[in-house]
Amino acid sequence: MDQSPVAVATKWFEAYSAGNFEEMKSLAAEGYTFQDPAFGKLEGERALGMYKMFTSTRDKTEAVWNVHEVKPAESDSQRAIVRFEAIYKFNGRPVTNQITSSILVVDGKVKEQVDTFDVAKWAAQSLGPKEGKH
Questions:
Q1: Which CATH number do you get for residue 52?
Q2: Where are the transmembrane segments (predicted)?
């Protein structure tokens, strides 16, 4: 099995897109951490719990995750950079978020994920007025 950062990050996002939390859990390293502007830094079970919530509520939220690119990080041979789009409903509001994720892979497992996105655009969509309401 290819354990390169690109291969592991690709498998991670394939499992995420399929809503397969158990596969994601099997790909996560002990002490896995997640960080983004909305959730802050989550560690271990809290980080994985976020993905369990996302994958288990995807029918309700109509969530779709489209991966556009997975490539090696230029500055770190243990990282992959993933560009993807998250489309979902948050409290009935449609959200389309363009995200760049830096995935650290250690011994064939995802050790760290740091997501960045346009916070102002995300907040306007997720926290602004509902569609059709002005």
A1: 3.10.450.50
A2: none
Are 92 and 130 a contacting pair, CB within 8 Å? yes
Quick one: the chain helix, strand, coil %, rounded to 5? 35, 40, 25
- 109-121 pLDDT, tens per residue? 999 999 999 999 9
Per-residue confidence (pLDDT) for residue 128, from 0 to 100: 78
What is the span of the domain harbouring residue 52? Answer: 5-127
Is the model's pLDDT at 133 over the cut of 70? no
Whole-number pLDDT of residue 134: 47
Res 14: pLDDT: 96
Does residue 133 fall inside a structural domain? no
User: Is 132 within the bounds of a domain?
Assistant: no
Among 28, 20, 1, 7, residue whose Cα is nearest residue 82:
7
Q: How many domains does the chain have?
A: 1
